[in-house]
Design a protein that fits this description.
Blueprint (H helix, E strand, L loop, with lengths): L29 H19 L4 H21 L2 H24 L5 H28 L8
Length: about 140
């Protein structure tokens, strides 16, 4: 078996390369993630099945960007609610794709890309929000 890294375009990567191996999660964190997001996502997926998984991904991304903007303004509690909604929708989109039997490389790349941009925006929002609070973000 060859363990060399695969260097290819997204179209040539087998779908099996995008499946998450639960063994990669730290054992003490996965039950929390499962309880907070995976179980509710499975129950919410039928309600979101009228949309494509990509649409759910974009809505979740919008929630994350809105949370970033609220963090910049120092409006922390609504930002936290939007951030959790974004994370929940991040799980829902995968469940919708599986429910509709529409798993695709495009969707996998879209989700990874949106997650990276959202993470950068969240860190930027936290940084700018802390700078705007005079460096004492805990006082807000």
């Amino acid at each position: 078996m060859d363990f060399a890294p695969i260097r290819t375009t997204p179209e040539r990567v087998p779908m099996s390369h995008f499946q998450v191996d639960i063994r990669n999660f730290p054992r003490n964190h996965y039950p929390v993630l499962k309880a907070l997001y995976r179980v509710p996502a499975i129950r919410l997926a039928p309600a979101f099945a009228v949309m494509t998984a990509d649409t759910v991904s974009v809505i979740g991304f919008g929630c994350g960007i809105a949370a970033s903007a609220l963090l910049v303004l120092g409006i922390n509690v609504p930002a936290l609610v939007l951030l959790h909604a974004s994370m929940l929708l991040d799980y829902v989109d995968g469940e919708v794709a599986r429910l509709r039997n529409q798993c695709s490389l495009h969707g996998a790349w879209l989700e990874v890309g949106l997650d990276k941009v959202q993470a950068v925006c969240l860190f930027g929002g936290l940084s700018l929000g802390a700078a705007g609070a005079g460096g004492d973000a805990g006082a807000a």
